[in-house]
Design a protein that fits this description.
Length: 546
């Protein structure tokens, strides 16, 4: 039996999404992100000490039981020495260390959780091990590189630069740029010149970037611009300040950037279609693969029969991908479809009661709490659930979630303003019962997993009024299909809500506040409860109300 510990993170400010994962005898045992412990979003510049301890505890093993530690960073200076020093200092023991290429780890995180016998893979992010976009083909023989692009010819860098120009934080707020793009504004020809797509290739016009962004060089800090004065002069507009009003010009920049990103991806897809390998499947990974609208466009194009994007497509998934890759080297793995992302810690009713008593809070223990939660949501209340193992990845999928009635037109504004403290143009996501999804959404012919809130779907016109607060301005939604087999607790809540309201959908958003990671512990959850206008929270079978 081989036990592999995958880790991501680092000691540089640009290293982020620190995480740890354990594969035991070829099976995923546990995965968790360091930000959930440090309470600093993305946990930049640290190795995942807390996550490693949690994973060892969940797997019921010690560090000496681990056969290999895998780190996604094959070209980092002195990384084996740094890791050896780290483990000997923090754990008094260092297993054998295996360094894996950043994009190969991304590719493994997607392919080995896809269930496909063979697949094309596109990985795309800002940069990792000096590369930004890599095309692969994978089958039972392994993962083979087809083509690659290096920084500054980076789709992640392009989108990050536009995000920063629009007044948002790059490497964090790209979802805001994507949301603005949904307002269907006119094209901006300058952005078309920034990212050029021709003959199934893409090219970044580096005049629009600050000098020095190149392979092997550190990017500017987040306090400095990625864009050059050339971009500002060509656009004839200063970059937007953080709280400045968004106008038609900003919408056109966002819309064109999203369109160009999609064009570049379809050029890459044509490359895949024209090479010697053949497959009807496509996997995506890397930070760019978190762009739900891009993923939707690929799905609706019907270029492939099947598409898979892991819920941990960003750098947090590198720990899982690295561990899966090395586990496969020593035990040939058949790719197995990842059906659920509940891979983190959980807290029992006993542990929750101890915390509630310590805080001297009033509470009720309710056996059939799912029905009570559904009734309160149907009556217009806003509540949260804290149940089972925590999600791995950036989305709350019914283990650490804030829930509301999507039919209430005012809910979106209330949540954005009073809970998330964010711009009102940002949409929320619908969670729908498995078996009822086709009543609400028009899905493409291409088969995709809609379990992880990572692909947009078109909302049927006759159902829009029923879920008005959980759809975007372009009448799409980042769907989560809830399966009773993977989360019966959440399924029962939606099922009961449907019986009361005849709407088999709930608005689902993460149990956190702006700029904070998703809640890990009961105490984290209660902190959100008492510092927002939330009406109630269900911690397993315990109900707390205001």
């Amino acid at each position: 039996m081989k036990i592999v510990l995958g880790i991501n993170g680092g000691t540089r400010p640009g290293n982020q999404d620190s995480s740890a994962s354990i594969i035991k005898d070829g099976k995923i045992v546990t995965c968790i992100e360091e930000e959930r412990f440090t309470r600093i979003k993305h946990a930049p510049g640290v190795l995942p000490e807390n996550s490693i301890r949690s994973c060892l505890n969940e797997a019921k093993i010690s560090i000496k039981d681990v056969d290999y530690v895998v780190f996604a960073g094959a070209t980092y200076d002195n990384m084996k020495l740094i890791l050896s020093n780290f483990f000997n200092l923090k754990f008094r023991y260092c297993p054998k260390i295996y360094l894996i290429d950043h994009h190969l780890a991304h590719a493994a995180s997607a392919f080995y959780t896809s269930g496909f016998n063979d697949s094309f893979i596109i990985t795309a992010d800002l940069s990792g091990d000096s590369r930004s976009t890599v095309l692969f083909y994978a089958d039972k023989k392994g993962i083979k590189k087809i083509n690659s692009y290096s920084k500054p010819h980076s789709l992640g860098l392009f989108y990050a630069t536009i995000t920063q120009y629009l007044g948002f934080r790059y490497d964090n707020d790209e979802c805001k740029t994507m949301a603005l793009a949904g307002f269907n504004s006119k094209q901006n020809h300058i952005i078309n010149d920034f990212l050029q797509v021709k003959n199934n290739e893409y090219h970044i016009n580096t005049n629009y970037l600050v000098k020095g962004i190149m392979p092997g060089k550190t990017n500017p800090s987040r306090q400095e611009p990625l864009f050059s004065e050339y971009l500002v002069n060509k656009l004839k507009a200063k970059p937007r300040f953080k709280n400045e009003k968004i106008n038609e010009f900003h919408l056109s920049v966002a819309k064109t950037a999203q369109d160009k990103l999609e064009q570049a991806f379809f050029a890459l897809i044509k490359q895949l279609k024209n090479n010697k390998f053949k497959s009807n499947n496509l996997c995506l990974a890397g930070g760019v693969a978190l762009n739900a609208q891009l993923n939707s466009k690929i799905a609706y194009s019907n270029e492939f029969e099947n598409i898979f994007i892991p819920p941990c497509a960003g750098d947090n998934g590198l720990s899982l991908g690295g561990a899966l890759y090395v586990a496969n080297k020593y035990k040939s793995l058949l790719p197995k479809r990842l059906k659920a992302t509940y891979l983190g810690q959980e807290f029992s009713n006993k542990e929750i009661k101890i915390e509630l008593d310590r805080l001297k809070l009033k509470y009720k223990y309710i056996d059939n709490i799912e029905k009570v939660v559904a009734e309160k949501l149907a009556n217009g209340k806003i509540g949260a659930i804290f149940h089972g193992r925590m999600e791995f990845g950036p989305r709350a999928l019914g283990a650490r979630s804030i829930l509301a009635n999507p039919k209430n037109k005012k809910i979106k504004e209330i949540l954005n303003k009073n809970f998330k403290q964010r711009e009102n143009f940002q949409p929320f996501a619908p969670a729908v019962l498995k078996g009822k999804e086709n009543e609400y959404f028009d899905f493409p012919k291409t088969k995709s997993d809609y379990d992880f809130m990572i692909i947009n779907a078109k909302v049927k016109q006759e159902k829009r009024k029923d879920i008005i607060s959980a759809i975007h301005v372009d009448n799409t939604a980042r769907v989560q299909i809830v399966d009773k087999k993977t989360n019966s607790y959440f399924y029962k809540i939606i099922e009961q809500f449907g019986k009361i309201t005849n709407v088999n959908v709930l608005l689902n958003t993460s149990l956190n506040k702006r700029g904070m990671p998703i809640a890990r512990t009961p105490n984290d959850a209660l902190n959100v409860f008492f510092t927002t206008p939330m009406d109630f929270i269900a911690l397993e079978n315990y109900l707390i109300e205001k």
